[in-house]
Design brief:
InterPro entries: Crypto/Photolyase_FAD-like_sf, Crypto/Photolyase_N_sf, Cryptochr/Photolyase_FAD-bd, Cryptochrome/DNA_photolyase_1, DNA_photolyase_N, Rossmann-like_a/b/a_fold. By secondary structure, the chain is mainly alpha-helical. Helix content is 40%, strand content 6%. The structure holds a DNA duplex.
DNA sequence: TGGACGGTTGAATAT
DNA sequence: GATATTCAACCGTCC
């Protein structure tokens, strides 16, 4: 009997150390092992991926390929540019494959894809081996031991984990690898459709990833950013297992840091160096195993002489949160990523709700503008032009570097949703998906639900102040001086609220506080705050209180069919007007019009807002655009400029 | 059953 | 300046 001919399919496990699936492949003692990566059009065209995360992925692939070659000079990572669903049947035949091995992936899309691939393998007579390795526990096992329910708290994860048993010790990297065997591709490439191409906005060159199966040189090489047509890479953070293991070594060498780490005490304002480990993107791409991290930390903690920190605030506690979100996603599938039809997610009538495909019950990736002012808030938030230096600094760091501290993510997420803009958390999650180099769908979705108080967390009256909160760590405002350089000369007294600085001082410090964020290149200008924070906070808290009182969840029939509006006052915050409407929080009208300008640009008090809301006119057959007529006026003016500010926002509204 | 309690990371004020 | 208390009051879990 001939020896196995094995394809090892790399996906979210771009490493050689502690890979249970790779070990399973090698345990077959194969005649040949093909280490492959399939260039999935889902990632190229459908998921939101900015140039920085692309670069990180390419780093990981290059490093892995070199590591493979070090173990066997005939081998490397073979990148094949076709969708796995169409490629595998041809590949099985061409390479006479007997086994396909890969690491389990419980993401909603990945499950669908892998089910298809397994079925194709079965049809071709290829044996499939799938091993869990991405998380501390198999997410499906966590769910099973949590009474079949999504894991929604750390105590549930701990209880379920206890039943599953001890977390596995890491497996050493292989010392040798079999030859890959014949790599001829004597078959036609099936080019995937690039419609819709959600990543078009990430490119300024020609996207050439599918020109040929084995790449432009026919050598299966990792593509370049240029080949993918992507815009400039700006992050200083680089990927790859070699870097990841070095970073881990450095962390572990500092025993006190490792053993006494408490996440809530780390400073979101710290840079060079940051206060946390920066290992999250390595976890995402699998260039570092979470069990490797867990046990290296745990062994330091066990030997530590002082008082070590405990989960959930300790380093290992961070991994439990990750597993919790994976467990929630594993149980809920696609519905985890949206409010609509999600039994665990509270329904809040946020502004800028997602469009819903009523056939599938899934969000489309596009959204509706129920309120022009909220859309301006959202775009100014996204591009770091809110006029709140703490928020703008974080958003600029996110856009440029692809990483911000966890508490910084809290600050901007609270601000966009329940603590300022009252904009749908799904909008924020999409921006993070686009820009974060460590974007992990489960964790990102879960954290946005947490911060928006729609799941996992409920204390919506605990609201992050963009002025007071950062001062807990950075009274001098050094973070602001780095990421909002317009304000670098401002006195610390005004650094978090520069609009309060006297005009004479503003001139002296070389930056005037004026305008609405349209001047993006002029460093002598910084915008006025886009609203009065305490006013907006009151409006939001009232809105949350009201929505909590009504108490709907995403799978409520009234949410599914749109009759939830019967339960909300027409003047409540959000697209609440009328007794009937489209499903979810969808709205029929998109653009505000016909409002007169007045010169008053001051934010209204909560009382004034209430009064204006009562006065606002209703037009028959035409939904109200915003709850406050005066705010509409201010917005109409902003909106015209807004269209010029963000010319690239083609996929929005 | 209902009341106590915990919930990784608030803010303002008092000591 | 650091730490404790109060603020107003949410949810889900647990006994």
């Amino acid at each position: 009997m001939s020896k196995p001919r094995v394809i090892y399919w790399f996906r979210t496990d771009l490493r050689l150390h502690d890979s249970p699936a790779l070990k399973a492949a090698l345990d077959l003692e194969p005649e040949c092992l093909y280490p492959i990566w399939t260039w999935d059009p889902h990632y190229v065209y459908r998921a939101r991926v900015g140039p920085n995360r692309w670069q990180y992925l390419l780093d990981c692939q290059n490093d892995l390929s070199q590591s493979i070659t070090r173990l066997n000079s005939k081998s490397k990572l073979l990148l094949i540019r076709e969708a796995p669903q169409t490629l595998f049947p041809k590949l099985f035949k061409a390479w006479n494959v007997t086994h396909l091995v890969f690491e389990k992936d419980t993401d909603a899309y990945a499950r669908e894809r892998d089910e298809q691939v397994v079925a194709l393998a079965k049809k071709a007579g290829v044996e499939v081996i799938v091993k869990t390795g991405r998380t501390l526990y198999d997410p499906d096992e966590l769910v099973k031991h949590n009474h079949g329910k999504p894991t929604m708290s750390i105590s549930q994860v701990q209880a379920a984990g206890k039943k599953i048993g001890e977390i596995a010790r890491p497996i050493p990297a292989p010392k040798e690898l079999p030859d890959p065997g014949n790599t001829d591709l004597h078959f036609e490439q099936e080019k995937p459709s690039n419609e819709p191409d959600i990543n078009a906005i990430q490119r300024d060159g020609n996207e050439a990833s599918y020109l040929s199966l084995a790449g432009p040189n026919g050598d299966f090489a990792v593509p370049t950013i240029e080949e993918l047509g992507l815009k400039e890479v700006t992050t200083p953070h680089r990927g790859g297992e070699t870097i990841a293991l070095k970073m881990l070594d450095d962390i572990i060498a500092d025993e006190t840091y490792t053993a006494t780490f408490e996440k809530p005490k780390t400073a979101p304002t710290a840079f060079e160096p940051q206060a946390t480990t920066l290992l999250s993107p390595h976890m995402h791409f699998g260039s570092l195993s979470c069990r490797e991290f867990y046990w290296r930390v745990q062994d330091v903690v066990s030997d530590f002489k002082g008082t070590a920190s405990q989960p959930p605030t300790s380093l290992t506690g961070q991994l439990l949160f990750r597993d919790m979100y994976f467990g929630a996603q594993a149980a809920l599938g696609y519905s985890f990523g949206q409010t609509y039809n999600n039994p665990q997610c509270r329904f809040i009538p946020w502004h800028l709700p997602s469009k819903i495909d009523t056939e599938s019950g899934l969000i489309t990736g596009d959204y509706l503008v129920d309120n022009a002012e909220a859309d301006v808030y959202f775009k100014r938030w996204k591009h770091g032009r809110t006029g709140f230096p703490w928020i703008d600094g974080l958003m600029r760091q996110l856009k440029d570097e692809g990483w911000i501290h966890h508490l910084g993510r809290h600050a901007v997420a609270c601000f966009l949703t329940r603590g300022g803009c009252y904009v749908d958390w799904e909008r924020g999650a999409e921006v993070f998906e686009e820009w974060l180099i460590d974007h992990e769908a489960a964790c990102n979705i879960g954290n946005w639900q947490w911060l928006s108080c729609t799941a996992f967390f409920a204390q919506f009256y605990r609201c992050y102040s963009p002025i007071a909160f950062p001062q807990k760590w950075d009274k001098e405002g050094n973070f602001i001086r780095k990421y909002v350089p317009e304000l670098k000369n401002f006195d610390k007294k005004y650094i978090y609220e520069p609009w309060k600085a006297p005009i004479a001082d503003q001139k002296k410090w070389g930056c005037r506080i004026q305008g609405e964020g349209s001047e993006t290149s002029d460093v002598t200008l910084y915008p006025k705050p886009m609203f009065d924070f305490s006013t907006r906070r009151e409006i939001c808290i009232q809105g949350m209180k009201n929505a909590y009182h009504i108490g709907l969840y995403g799978n409520d029939p009234k949410v599914l069919n749109g009759t939830w509006r019967e339960l909300f006052d027409d003047n409540a915050e959000g697209p609440t007007e009328g007794e009937k409407g489209p499903p979810g929080a969808m709205v029929e009208c998109k653009d505000a019009d016909g409002h007169e300008e007045n010169g008053d640009n001051e934010p209204p008090s909560p009382k004034a807002v209430k009064k204006m809301a009562v006065k606002s006119e209703k037009k028959a057959g035409h939904k109200r655009e915003a709850s406050q007529s005066t705010l509409d006026n201010a917005v109409t003016r902003k909106k015209k400029k807004g269209a010029e500010i963000f010319p690239n926002e083609t996929h929005f509204g």
